[in-house]
Amino acid sequence: MERRTFVKSAGLLAGASFLNTTNVFAEDDAAGIIRIGVIGCGDRGKGIIQVLNQLPGKFKVIAVCDVLDFRLDETKKESKDANFTTYKDHRRLLDNKDVDAVVVAVPLNMHYAIAVDTLNANKHLYLEKTMTYDIPQALELVKLVKSKPKQVVQVGHQYRYSPLYYRVKEMINKGYLGDINQIDCRWDRNGNWRRPVPSPALERQINWRMYKQYSGGLMAELLSHQIDFINWAFDTHPQQIFATGGIDTFKDGRETFDNVQVMFRYEGQHSMVGNFGATCGNAHDGYLFKIKGTLGTISLLTDEGKFFPEKKLLSDKTLVDGVTGATRIVWNKEGGSPILPEKTKDGTWYAFNEFYKSVQNKTLPDSNVFTGARTAICVHSANAALYGKMPVTWKPEYDKL
């Protein structure tokens, strides 16, 4: 489903003159700098601009767009390099021929339309997760990208680029965990998830995550990262989806649930149960990600992880040390061994380094339109089970992406 064969046949890997068709400034061309336009200047958009500013030899933000004036003002103040053009209409930004690539960080219901406009404007695209608002949009975007072989499309599931998560994928593939059967994921917080609203008229524009018209709620905004990693690490997707949830803590007019629990049933090489939950009413667990097998458990945070072998594995020190490269000295009091010796950087930093390489080398990113569609289908199926209060089954046509 990753469709690397498509990339080769469609021509992404061919054509030395490819980049020259979109680059305009000779100075930046010679330096290999990709000129970026950012559409959406909320918290995520501004955060991405800060990351791009940390990669000055690779990216230059030359244009930003938001429909809210105060967002544009905030972006100017927070950026160390405010030498960019501002727009309120994304189509005007896309008309700027100096823009090589576009970052889309807008509310979920706008992802598809702006992604289509970006591709039709012949720009490379970094599209924030979740890729699309619904399943039909995901399928249509795959079709469009297939017709645009010269454009790189990367989806913002950044854990695919973290050295830590790469190492975990390797451990899974090499069988260090044995037969994996359970996945436990949480992303909890204790707060109403709201943003300040300068005017009541802007409530839905700013707090769009609370309303079904714009948002996929906790599944799309938080749990999609862990869902996507499981899809990637195991090259899989769930066959059955069961869910329950509700507005249990913040009865403030919101429509999306503030407490969700979803169970995925996976079949195939690994027959597994995946548990994915999030609440806005308790922050004790925070981010929790455990992958359990007959030989051991991996416990992950966003920037560090530990391997906990089953007791039967402890009797074979050589095998345990081969898993993580650890020795008994670094084992902690809970019996776990660090997967990497140091914490990793924020995943967005790794993701944009990959985006740069993909544009320069004309290669398919690990998080691409095909994998993004698969995760979007998982997210939207989970929401269908949540709000429809009935199990949902994966449809065979989804495997034809």
TrEMBL record:
Where does the record place the Gfo/Idh/MocA-like oxidoreductase N-terminal domain? Answer: 34-157
Q: Name one GO molecular function term.
A: nucleotide binding
InterPro entries linked: Gfo/Idh/MocA-like_OxRdtase_N, Gfo/Idh/MocA_oxidrdct_glycsds, GFO_IDH_MocA-like_dom, NAD(P)-bd_dom_sf
* Pfam families noted in UniProt: GFO_IDH_MocA, GFO_IDH_MocA_C3
**Where does the GFO/IDH/MocA-like oxidoreductase domain lie?**
167-298
Protein name according to UniProt? Gfo/Idh/MocA family oxidoreductase
Organism for this UniProt entry: Mucilaginibacter conchicola
